[in-house]
Amino acid sequence: MAFCSKMAVASMEKDAINSEDDHHHLKNSYREDLISPDKEDISRILTVPFSGRIRGGMRPGKKIIVMGIIDPEPDSFDIILNCGHNEEKDDEEFTDVALKLSVRFAERQYLRSARVSGKWSEEEAVIAYFPFIPDQPFRIEIHCEHQRFRIFVDGHQLFDFYHKVKSLMSINMIRIVGSLQITKLG
Predict the structure, then answer these.
(1) CB of 158 closer than 8 Å to CB of 151
(2) CA Rg, the chain, in Å?
(3) What's the CA gap between 151 and 143, in Å, rounded?
(4) Rounded Cα–Cα distance for residues 94 and 97 (Å)
(5) Long-range contacts for 130-134 (Cβ within 8 Å, ≥24 apart)?
(6) Is 10 exposed, middle or buried (0-12, 13-18, 19+ CB in 10 A)?
(7) Read out DSSP for 54-70?
(8) Distances (CA, A) of 9 to 37, 171, 186
(9) How far, in whole angstroms, is CA 5 from its chain's centroid?
(10) Of 14-18, 96-100, 128-132, 136-140, where does mean pLDDT reach its minimum?
(11) Which of 178, 185, 174 is nearest to 82 (CA)?
C-alpha cells in the first residue's frame, strides 16, 4: 500500500470497522461513507470468512453497512455482531451474540436471533419478501437505535430486531461467513 494510502487510512474516523488478520493486526478502517482499501489489499482484507472489530462498539445512531455479491450457487450466509473480543476460537460458544442475521437460500428465509449468557433466543423469521438473488449485488444496513436494530436491504426496511444484549458498547465484533463476497464494509 502506498505511503499516502496508509496515512489516509490511519486518519479515518475512529468509529469504523477494523479487519483482524491472524498474521497481522491490520489497522485499516473504513469510513461511514464506504471508503475501501486499495484494490491490491481488498481481497486480503475483505475475505470471507471475515472477522473485524467495531471500534467503539455500537450505540444509538451508529450503523454498519455490508455490501457484497451473492455467490452464483449460494447455500447461506451469516452476519454476526458479537460482544467482546476472544482470541481463542473455543471461547466463541460463550460469547454473547447481539444479532445473528442468517440468510438461507433453499428456504428463502432471513432469520434473526441472539445469544445471551449461552442461551439462544427464539429465531425470528417473518419477512415481507426475500431480497437476495444469486450472483447479484446487495447492500445491508444495520441501524442501531435505543431499543432495536433496524435492518435495511437495498434501501428497503425489512425488519426490526429488539435488543437482547443491553450493553450496546460491548457489541464490538462483526463476523461474516458463507456464500458471498464482501465488496465494501463501513
Answers:
(1) yes
(2) 16
(3) 6
(4) 9
(5) 131/156, 131/158, 132/70, 132/74, 132/103, 132/105, 133/70, 134/70, 134/71, 134/72, 134/73, 134/74, 134/105
(6) exposed
(7) ETT---TT-EEEEEEEE
(8) 8, 23, 13
(9) 24
(10) 14-18
(11) 174
**pLDDT one-digit tens code per residue, 11-44:** 333 445 554 443 333 333 343 333 333 344 545 5
pTM: 0.77
Q: Is it the case that residue 121 has pLDDT exceeding 50?
A: yes
For residues 152 and 115, give the distance between their C-alpha atoms in angstroms, rounded to a whole number.
Answer: 22
Q: What pLDDT digit, counting tens, does each position of 42-94 carry?
A: 455 788 999 889 988 999 999 999 999 999 999 999 999 999 754 444 456 67
